[in-house]
Amino acid sequence: MCCMISCQLFCQNWVQVGNLNGHPRVMLNDTFSGQLLISGNFRLNGTDTLDGFFAYDGSNFISFGRRYDCVHFGCTPAFLIARYDEQLYFSGPSLTIIDGVPVKGIGQWDGTTWLDAMPGLEYGDRNPVLDNYYIHEGNFYGVGAFRTAEGDTCNSVAYWDGERWTGLDFPPYSDNSLPRVTSVIFYQGQLYVAGNFSWELGGGGDIARLGSAGWEMVGGGLKGGQALVSDVTVYKGELYICGYFRKIDGNVGNAIMRWDGQQWKEVGAGFCTASVILFDMAVIDDKLIVVGNFDCETTGFSARNIATWDGERWCSFGNSYFNNGIGVISEYSGEIYIGGGFTQIDGQSVKYFAKWVGDHSTDTCSAPISAAPEPTTAGFSLWPNPATDLLQVRSPAPIESVWVFDALGREVYQKSVSGERVSVPVGDLAAGLYFVVVRAGGKIWGGKFVKE
């Protein structure tokens, strides 16, 4: 089934694409089909057949059939979209039945029907989940949340050769709980994985590589008990990571760093402030573009939720104002697409999924950027922490909007509010680490809490 785009809404730099009622979480520029493949917790124009998954060819949205009945907030159908050996795969914890076909966390779309795919991963009584993949020498390296591969303990890291899985014996936490591994890449001939994990030895975590002697933390790993990596990529011969980590915890940089094979280095003279969260990166037109939830202001430089790095300096990208963060970015057919929780750009209605149509006449650049001072936290507080049912948020200025993100940067709550104190319901959230971001008095404030 195809559905023509029924409206396009313009602002200064961005055009809305389609009419989604929620934002994309995953995008893949699929050179095999010539389409942009998209997954998220949404419906398009209210039609069931475009729930959750679709392809976009630059003009039309193309359905993958009716998916399972799962449209409540936070029920993301797929964390991963992958093309391997000319076949198309989707994976997510909610993938149990699609179009009446039982699948176990990983489904394959053959162009007309759904199939259960890549059997052999197990995660107790839960669906195994693939968060990311990398194809190297013909093998599909998958990471995510699963305990065993073909019966062998592997702890979220394994590879598929087209017929069966082989575990790579990734270490669990010291209490044998499962690490969450969300990124994978080969760099300088070695396998690197990253996410949110730590080991007893070394005092660091969240990024490791497989060497001749086994698994080791890269450069001692990230510092700070709440650090995490959300994305990895190679740019100009160096390995870049982004996510949530801070210099004040002992890391080289805030939210983004680069690794040359021997040591960690800051990107420029620093990026923004310690409260920055970066969700995704893309190399487009020989520039590294980062997106997330941030509001950077320095002398001669400003960037809100999207910025570019050219190897020497940071620059803004269109200098647009978003009323919410950007979670994912992709290039397709020479154009740039973004997905996020935004509903306005530059004060105009542009919702969830947009394409770049502007120029860069308003961009400002650093030479290089200097780290902006961390905004004062006086008057901003979260309690109780840990929280069970309600989290109270207080700000020194009237709060306009509040967002909650999980440890992997996925938005799990958003609401427009009014007042210097708001109550956020957290009773339905799974136990773990979360981030709260509020816009209050024209500024961005952030903090962390633990859900018990």
The oligomeric status of these chains comes to single chain
Contiguous helical run count: 0
Helix content: under 10%
Provide the CATH topology of the largest domain: Methylamine Dehydrogenase, Chain H
Ends distance = 44 Å
> CATH homologous superfamily of the largest domain?
YVTN repeat-like/Quinoprotein amine dehydrogenase
Overall outline = globular
How is the largest sheet built, in terms of strand order? 1-6-5-4-3
Poorly predicted runs: 1-11, 368-377
Q: Would you state the CATH class of the largest domain?
A: Mainly Beta
The name of the CATH architecture of the largest domain is 7 Propeller
- How large, in whole angstroms, is the Cα Rg? 21 Å
Question: How many β-strand runs?
Answer: 41
- Class of secondary structure makeup: mainly beta
Topology:
Blueprint: E1 2-4, E2 14-16, E3 24-30, E4 35-40, E5 53-56, E6 60-63, E7 80-84, E8 87-91, E9 97-98, E10 101-102, E11 106-109, E12 114-116, E13 121-122, E14 129-136, E15 139-145, E16 148-149, E17 152-153, E18 157-160, E19 165-167, E20 180-187, E21 190-198, E22 205-211, E23 214-217, E24 228-235, E25 238-244, E26 256-259, E27 264-266, E28 277-284, E29 287-298, E30 301-309, E31 314-316, E32 326-332, E33 335-340, E34 344-345, E35 348-349, E36 353-356, E37 381-383, E38 390-406, E39 411-425, E40 432-440, E41 443-451
Antiparallel strand pairs: 1-6, 2-36, 3-4, 4-5, 5-6, 7-8, 8-11, 9-10, 11-12, 13-16, 14-15, 15-18, 16-17, 18-19, 20-21, 21-22, 22-23, 24-25, 25-26, 26-27, 28-29, 29-30, 30-31, 32-33, 33-36, 34-35, 37-38, 38-39, 38-40, 40-41
